[in-house]
């Protein structure tokens, strides 16, 4: 299959890679139909994320069609269209039971401080991401969500990261009806956080833009 391939800082290629295989009975294999390039991927591209290894495929925002399922997967079937959140989590143990899926210790043997993330270095588990024709998705009954009939691929794709990240930022801000809100940063997440602030009832929302200074 064709996949994005990291060759070092500021160097990426499209390369042939072996098709992913079921490695655990809870895995699914997804044929990717849409994938994004996230702003966070630029940190990887620039070599700013520790333990980003040559040969890695990026991509933590993707949707697709289920093409193969492990023997223990119960909630999905071949042919289902699903969106996949960027965090990889087991859904069973301490952090997952508290809703802290980003800290799932079962999904990432490489670190005790962060759970698995698709396409985001070996620090985050070394999983290949979705900027490829196919991707292996662990814990098929936990993360993937069926895409409802009538929802466009583009709308579903935004639900893998941008919308829930902006929404959770607004939610954690404790916004109440009539509040004045300032969002610092006008990237996709900042813009989504601003829109969600209105959803929560804010009366005024300002977005502050600024430039990062490279040191």
TrEMBL record:
**Gene Ontology MF annotations:** oxidoreductase activity; zinc ion binding
> InterPro entries from the xrefs?
ADH-like_N, ADH_Zn_CS, GroES-like_sf
Query: Would the keyword Translocase be found if you checked this record's keyword annotation?
Result: no
Superkingdom, taxonomy of origin: Bacteria
Q: Which residues cross the membrane?
A: none
Going by the UniProt record, its keywords in alphabetical order are: Metal-binding, Oxidoreductase, Zinc
**Cofactor(s) it depends on:** Zn(2+)
Describe the location of the Alcohol dehydrogenase-like N-terminal domain by residue ranges: 25-144
Q: Does the keyword Zinc apply?
A: yes
Write down what this protein is called.
Alcohol dehydrogenase catalytic domain-containing protein
Lineage from the top down? Bacteria, Pseudomonadati, Bacteroidota, Sphingobacteriia, Sphingobacteriales
């Amino acid at each position: 299959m064709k996949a994005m391939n990291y060759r070092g800082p500021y160097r990426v290629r499209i390369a042939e890679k072996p098709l992913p295989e079921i490695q655990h009975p809870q895995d699914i294999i997804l044929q990717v139909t849409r994938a994004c390039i996230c702003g966070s991927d630029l940190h990887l591209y620039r070599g700013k994320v520790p333990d980003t290894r040559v040969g890695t495929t990026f991509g933590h925002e993707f949707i697709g069609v289920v093409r193969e399922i492990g023997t223990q997967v119960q909630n999905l079937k071949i042919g289902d269209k699903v969106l996949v959140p960027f965090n990889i989590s087991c859904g069973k143990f301490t952090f997952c039971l508290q809703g802290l899926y980003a800290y799932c210790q079962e999904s990432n043997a490489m670190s005790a401080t962060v759970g698995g993330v698709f396409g985001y270095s070996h620090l985050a588990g070394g999983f290949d991401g979705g900027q490829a024709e196919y991707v292996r998705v662990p814990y098929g009954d936990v993360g993937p969500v069926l895409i409802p009939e009538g929802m466009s691929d583009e709308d579903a794709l935004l639900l893998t990261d941008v919308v829930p990240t902006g929404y959770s930022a607004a939610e954690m801000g404790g916004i109440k009806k009539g509040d004045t809100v300032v969002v610092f940063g006008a990237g996709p997440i900042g813009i989504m956080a601003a829109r969600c602030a209105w959803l929560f009832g804010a009366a005024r929302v300002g977005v502050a833009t600024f430039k990062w200074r490279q040191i």
